[in-house]
Amino acid sequence: MLLRTSWRLVAAAAPAALWPRARAPTRGLRLRVVDHGPQSAVPSDAATAPEAESVLRPLYMDVQATTPLDPRVLDAMLPYLVNYYGNPHSRTHAYGWESEAAMERARQQVASLIGADPREIIFTSGATESNNIAIKELEAAIQPDTSLVSVMTVNNEIGVKQPIAEIGHICSSRKVYFHTDAAQAVGKIPLDVNDMKIDLMSISGHKIYGPKGVGAIYIRRRPRVRVEALQSGGGQERGMRSGTVPTPLVVGLGAACEVAQQEMEYDHKRISKLAERLTRKIMKSLPDVVMNGDPEHHYPGCINLSFAYVEGESLLMALKDVALSSGSACTSASLEPSYVLRAIGTDEDLAHSSIRFGIGRFTTEEEVDYTVEKCIYHVKRLREMSPLWEMVQDGIDLKSIKWTQH
Amino acid sequence: MAAAGAGRMRRATSALLLRALRLPVRELSAPARLYHKKVVDHYENPRNVGSLDKTSKNVGTGLVGAPACGDVMKLQIQVDEKGKIVDARFKTFGCGSAIASSSLATEWVKGKTVEEALTIKNTDIAKELCLPPVKLHCSMLAEDAIKAALADFKLKQEPKKGEVGKK
């Protein structure tokens, strides 16, 4: 046994170039895993490997943007990337049969997470494609006055939970289709498509610790919801989404859904505790901090705080060893403040001051404490540099000032 | 869980390996593509943050921008009797590039005369800080701040209306 342990130690210590292994997301503070930089596809000479500089990576607090692969998901996917590489639509040999079996197993895993029938799940390349298929259905609708209601289940910026069950009941009583983009909600809060009367649902793999590049759309069979295919081809996925289904990716999605179902309650409790810790500590030490979004109907893992008199991007630059986001990742390239914050009536200057903290399955208490400590320090520092803070301290009402541009 | 144990072991051996090979380890300053190290430097090693007495006759105060736009700069200059800027201070509500632009502006106006300070252009500020196109407006606001401070100083030097009427 001693030999086996020492062998494992040696195996672990060998440079990654010689022994390409998947690294599990390292829990713990200040990920001190030595990062040799992205590996090239072609195996390079061992002599050139040491040239790569090693870096300390930032803490990851941006789970709304994407999540790391759960190690259990990777374990499920690997055989289908290495050995069982058949096309799941090949009907004539064992490679195809085993891939098809895996695909159907994954379909069942996704369906059971949301209380659906496996025949109602179509695999896509992600929630965006699913949304497009769902919306396109509007044009294919038969009744002239049909409308489609499309609501996000959990908002990705402020974490607010929409009253999906109530909306679903209203829609079904008015015979209107109801679609929901559940990318941030699946596997995090309990969802049942029948209880909530959901007709269409978009699911994203990489938001629930699954692989990127895969998602699913739930399409109700009873009563039948007709959708129009976005891409045409060989008629796979009941003709609703042609293209070979990527077995390793859907196996990953299925595994992620199953793991999520098992871990949902525990994760929710743990994340709620960490979120409460983060908010309480920050609010206790800093004045003039506003939490955006309804505090009651809120998913705890997404905390959006506005630090008055401090601009969001400068705080992100200051918190350089924590990966965070200010506003939605989708709009980070524009100069506009977040449209979500504007829609909930946040003052424009507070919208520029917002930071989104994402707490996920692998976030630790030490990471939260470190982030809080750094955040408090840098907000205080930036407020010392802020003319608005100075004016407020002098008793000036900022709303009374005529600014030079708008 | 075995995975956690293996992770800990891998971390320990990685740390050992690091020390053994003595690889250069640097902090991943972030995001390297978005913030130039000159911009980060102005935040981490601030120069001239603060305030001058705005009631003083020798101090010009420029306040430009708007909180609704996410950019507000306050730039103050202290001018001596010969018209030379001897001190400058700034405070900024804005992104890293805005802070750096206004900080650099205070560095550049110091030692210049009022006329020379008027020649500072936003393009020079942007070039010095290697600002990307999306952040050019920060350098423009810094130029506006300098001009506003100089204009305020000039206004203070004008004889008061009351004095004109005096005999």
Overview of this protein structure:
The complex is a heterodimer of chains A (406) and B (167). Chain A is an alpha/beta fold and 406 residues long. Chain A is built from eleven helices and eleven strands. Chain A has helices at 2-13, 71-82, 94-114, 127-140, 164-173, 247-285, 312-318, 339-343, 348-351, 365-384, 387-393, and strands at residues 54-56, 59-60, 121-124, 148-152, 177-181, 200-204, 215-219, 289-291, 302-307, 322-323, 354-358. Chain A has a five-stranded mixed beta sheet with strand order 3-7-6-5-4, sandwiched between helices. In chain A, helix 5 links the parallel strand 4 and strand 5. The relative contact order of chain A is 0.13. Chain B contains seven helices and four strands, in the order H-E-H-E-E-E-H-H-H-H-H. Chain B is α+β, with helices and mostly antiparallel strands and 167 residues long. Classes of the chains: A alpha/beta (406), B alpha+beta (167). The interface between A and B is large, with 50 and 53 residues. Chain B: Residues 35-157 form the NIF system FeS cluster assembly NifU N-terminal domain.
Summarize the structure in short.
Chain A has 406 residues and is an alpha/beta fold. Helix content of chain A is 37%, strand content 11%. In chain B, helix 2 packs across helix 3, helix 3 (96-109) packs across helix 6 (136-157) and helix 5 (122-129) crosses helix 6.
How would a textbook summarize the main sheet of chain B? 3 strands, antiparallel
Main-sheet strand order of chain B equals 2-3-4
Give the end-to-end Cα distance of chain A, rounded to a whole number of Å: 71 Å
From N to C, what is the helix and strand string of chain B?
HEHEEEHHHHH
- Mean pLDDT across residues of chain A: 84
What is the oligomer described by this structure?
Answer: heterodimer
Query: Hey, roughly how much beta strand do the residues of chain A contain?
Result: 5-15%
Largest sheet of chain A: 5 strands, mixed
Number of strands of chain B: 4
**Gyration radius over CA of chain B:** 23 Å
Weakly predicted, low-confidence segments of chain B: 20-33, 162-167
Domain NIF system FeS cluster assembly NifU N-terminal (chain B): 35-157
Protein name (chain B): Iron-sulfur cluster assembly enzyme ISCU
GO molecular function (chain B): ferrous iron binding; iron-sulfur cluster binding; iron-sulfur cluster chaperone activity; molecular adaptor activity; protein homodimerization activity; zinc ion binding
Keywords (chain B): Iron, Metal-binding, Transit peptide
